[in-house]
Amino acid sequence: MFKYGILYACIGGNMAEVRIETNEDFERALRGFKVQCKKEGIVKRFRERQYYTKPAQKRRLKKKKR
Known about the structure:
Elements: E1 5-11, E2 14-20, H1 26-40, H2 42-49, H3 55-65
Antiparallel strand pairs: 1-2
């Protein structure tokens, strides 16, 4: 049985952290951690950095977004 701990993730200066108490359900803590990661934009930045994009391609995407 999982007693207590800390879940954390950090990408590019953004950090999400959830402390798990002894009586807290792990599934609930994990759900809260995912919400916090989404608010911080960690998942989005991770997906952006998952593959290398060439500078020219970045400019093209930036121009397309406008």
